[in-house]
């Protein structure tokens, strides 16, 4: 039986940089209208600092730290794109592994993966919006393992965040590979649940898992 690899989506398969920039700009426009003057660059620096402190909810933390009593602007997926080379990596891995997704994502994840042309590589797709459970809750990992009909030791998890990806997947018994992309690259490694491997690009999996 093939071993499984589960992937996070945002900043693992999908580059969210432009969506973050749009989100930061929209946040600053709203803040400015309330008399709180912050530039998108300053806002990004605050978010990066929250990541460096391993804050578990960095976007929420920064918004609350500004003493704002209105909801922050909603996230948009419109400007997200696949990281370069993702389809090719998934195609090669799928020949020797069963692939799946466990991700904190809004509604419509499967459709977005279809639009990217990669949905067909995944035998199991678990999105927080669909199951009503978010990482780092171990239940979302348990549900994926149940659907795959495997034990944790038969699975590898690949993600960018220490708090949502590496720690819970290690806790449940998976091997965990951290990809240092996006804001998650600012996270400090957990001493208790360290990554089994760290990569900077998804293509490195082809050598590591050959």
Automatic annotation (TrEMBL):
Biological-process GO terms, alphabetical: small molecule metabolic process
InterPro entries per UniProt: HAD-like_hydrolase, HAD-like_sf, HAD-SF_hydro_IA, HAD-SF_hydro_IIIA, HAD_2, HAD_sf, PGP-like_dom2
Pfam families in the cross-refs: HAD_2
MF-aspect GO terms: metal ion binding; phosphatase activity
Cofactor: Mg(2+)
Keywords in alphabetical order: Hydrolase, Magnesium, Metal-binding
UniProt superkingdom: Bacteria
Protein name: HAD-IIIA family hydrolase
């Amino acid at each position: 039986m093939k071993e499984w690899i589960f992937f996070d989506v945002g900043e693992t398969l999908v580059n969210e940089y432009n969506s973050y920039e749009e989100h930061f700009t929209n946040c600053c426009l709203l803040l400015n209208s309330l008399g709180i003057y912050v530039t998108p660059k300053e806002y990004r620096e605050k978010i990066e600092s929250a990541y460096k402190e391993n804050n578990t909810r960095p976007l929420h933390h920064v918004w609350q730290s500004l003493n704002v009593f209105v909801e922050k602007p909603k996230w948009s997926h419109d400007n997200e794109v696949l990281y370069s080379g993702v389809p090719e990596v998934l195609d090669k891995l799928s020949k020797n592994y069963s692939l799946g997704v466990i991700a904190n994502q809004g509604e419509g994840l499967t459709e977005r993966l279809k639009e990217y042309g990669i949905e067909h590589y995944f035998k199991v797709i678990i999105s927080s919006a669909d199951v009503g459970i978010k990482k780092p809750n171990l239940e979302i990992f348990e549900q994926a393992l149940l659907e795959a009909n495997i034990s944790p030791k038969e699975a590898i998890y690949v993600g960018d965040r220490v708090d949502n990806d590496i720690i819970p997947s290690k806790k449940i018994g998976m091997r965990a590979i951290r990809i240092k992309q996006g804001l998650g690259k600012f996270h400090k490694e957990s001493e208790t649940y360290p990554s089994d491997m760290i990569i900077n690009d998804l293509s490195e999996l082809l050598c590591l898992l050959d």
